[in-house]
Amino acid sequence: MERLLEFIKQYKRNRSAVVGFIVVVLLISTAIFAPIVAPYSPDIQNLADRLIPPMWDAKGVSSHVLGTDDFGRDLFSRIIFGSRISLMVGAISVGVSLSFGLVMGIVAAYFGGKTDLFIMRIVDIMLSIPAILLAIVIVSILGPSLFSAMTAIGIVGIPTYARIVRSSVLAEREKEYVIASRINGSSNIRLMFVVILPNCASPIIVQATMGFASAVLEAAGLSFLGLGAQPPTPEWGAMLSDSLQFITTAPWMIFYPGVAIFLTVLSFNLMGDGLMDVLDPKLKDK
Amino acid sequence: PKYGGVLVFGRSGDSVALDPAHVTDGESFYGSTQVYNNLVQFKNGTTVMEPGLATSWDVAKDGLSYVFHLRKGVYFHPTKYYKKRNEFTADDVVFSLKRQFDKTNPYNKIGGSFKYWGAMNMDKIVKDVIKLDKYTVKITLKKPEAPFLSNMAMDFASILSKTYAMDLLKKGKADRLSRYPVGTGPFVLVKWIKDDKMIFSANENYWEGKPYIKKLILKVVPNSSVRAAELKVGSIHVMDFPNPEEIAGLQANPAIKLVKQEGLNVGYLALNEIKVPAFRDVRVRRAINYAINKKAIVKAIYAGFGKPAYAPIPPTMWSYNANIKKFKYNPAKAKELLKEAGYPKLSFELWAMPVSRPYMPNARKVAEAMQADLAKVGVTVKIVSYDWGTYLDKGEHFLDDSCILGWTGDNGDPDNFLNVLLSSNAAKIPASNVAGWKNKDFDALIAKAKVTTDIKERTKLYMKAQEIFADQVPWVTIANSLVVEPIRKSVMNFKLDPMGKRRFNKVWFDK
Amino acid sequence: MNLLEIKNLKTYFYSDAGVNKAVNDISFEIPKGKTVCIVGESGSGKSITSLSIMRLIDPPGKIVDGEVIFEGTDLLKLSDKEMRKVRGRDISMIFQEPMTSLNPSYTVGYQIDEALRLHQKQLNKKQRFEKVVESLELVGIHNPREKYREYPFKLSGGQRQRVMIAIAMACEPKMLIADEPTTALDVTIQAQVLDLMNDLQKKKGTSILFITHDLGVVYQIADEVVVMYKGHIVEKASAKELFADPRHPYTKALLHSIPVPGVTPRKSKLDTVDENVDYLSFPKEIR
Amino acid sequence: MSEIVYEIKNLKKHYEINLGLFKKPKIIKAVNGISFNVKKGEVLSIVGESGCGKSTTAKLILKIEEPTSGQILFEGEDITKLQHHELSEYRKKVQIIFQDPYSSLNPRWKVGSIIGEPLKLNTDMSDKEIKERVLYLMEKVGMHPDWFERYPHQFSGGQRQRIGIARALALNPEVIVCDEPVSALDVSIQAQVLNLLLDLQEEFNLTYIFISHDLSVVEHISDRIVVMYYGDIVELKSVEDLFNNPEADYTKKLLSAIPTIKE
Amino acid sequence: MFSYIVKRLLWTIPTIFGVTLLVFSMVHLTPGDPAAAILGDKANPKSIADLRAQMGLDKPLYEQYFIYIKNLSHGDFGRSANSNEPVISEFSDRFPATVELSMVAMLFAVFLGIGAGIISAVKRYSIFDYGSMFGALAGVSMPVFWLGLVLIYFFSVRLGWLPVSGRLGYEYDIDHITGLYLVDSLLTDNIPAFWDALKHLILPAIALGTIPMAIIARMTRSSMIEVMKEEYIKTARAKGCSRFQVIFIHALRNAMMPVVTIIGLMLGSLFAGAILTETTFSWPGIGKWLVNAVYQRDFPVIQSTTLIIAIIFIIVNFIVDLLYAFINPKIRLS
Ligand SMILES: Nc1ncnc2c1ncn2[C@@H]1O[C@H](COP(=O)(O)OP(=O)(O)OP(=O)(O)O)[C@@H](O)[C@H]1O
Ligand SMILES: Nc1ncnc2c1ncn2[C@@H]1O[C@H](COP(=O)(O)OP(=O)(O)OP(=O)(O)O)[C@@H](O)[C@H]1O
Ligand SMILES: [Mg+2]
Ligand SMILES: [Mg+2]
Question: Is E256 exposed, middle or buried (0-12, 13-18, 19+ CB in 10 A)?
Answer without folding.
Answer: buried
